[in-house]
Amino acid sequence: QVHVVESGGGLVQPGGSLTLSCAASGSFLNIYIVAWYRQAPGNQRELVAGIAPTGTTNYADSVKGRFTISRDNAKKTVYLQMNSLKPEDTAVYYCQWGSGFWGQGTQVTVSS
Length: 112
What we know:
The chain is mainly β. 0% of the residues lie in helices and 53% in strands.
């Protein structure tokens, strides 16, 4: 069993930055792929970025060059650094650890 908690969301102006954290507890955490998803009202949940145990990353086209995913295995935490935020980045951001362990989500609102 893996327990996942996201944090770091909030209100930010367009062009601003936020860093989200995804902290996990449980066993064998470092063997899992970890991904950030987001869901805006009325939209389906979409993949934002993912990171493999090896450190290999992938990003949605909409966030490439603006977002960076990283992991600290010692701290059992994955981060999502978000720069140059746009209003269309507004959503609830969820962390998925492995294939079935989700956090409760953290709200990101980009607005002036």
